[in-house]
Amino acid sequence: MNIYVDFDDCLCETARRFSTLVKELFDVDVPYEKINYFNLQESFSLTEEQYEHLMTEGHKMDVLLSYEETPDAIEVVNGWIDAGHDVSVITGRPYSAYEPSRGWLDQHGLNRAKLYCLNKYGRDAFIKDSEFSLEIEDYKKMHFDIAVEDSPAAFKFFEHLPDLRVMVYDRPWNQGCEFPGNNYGRYFNWESIKKSV
Fold first, then answer.
1. To 10 degrees, what angle do helices 14-26 and 48-58 make?
2. What is the mean pLDDT of residues 166-195?
3. Which of 5, 68, 122, 178 has its CA 20 to 30 A from that of 106?
């Protein structure tokens, strides 16, 4: 099988780190459980300037390398690779974040997973002249059987794959969203994803 895995908030606890980062930077206290929107500017009630500053800080190497692993994610993904499945980590991070992102994967034992930076959200303005390693037209030539994703904003990237099973990792910002089809399901942890696959 070909398996798509999102990086942030599927493999690692990005939103939890951003919750502490926004407190450090702006003294804005929004606990992880209250991050109700995928749009962090909206969730944290930030100005445009504050949001750009947050995203710039959040994509610095030391911060990217500090993210905690989502429990059991590494074990499950490596189990798939051990079983002969092809795993691609498809992130919306800009290519300027590729090296620390690759470093995080390698340090956490996911050195065999492929990593691609895809402009999923068109939000690269915080790093001027950002580039991505995977263009939309090339991504659409790829085939996946299973996808693990947390962001409702990314669901549109699965429209060309009608037989794809989409495993939505339960997060506060996706709890109110409607799934586009019966091929979508909600999963509360990696153990349940493993059992389903």
1. 120
2. 97
3. 122
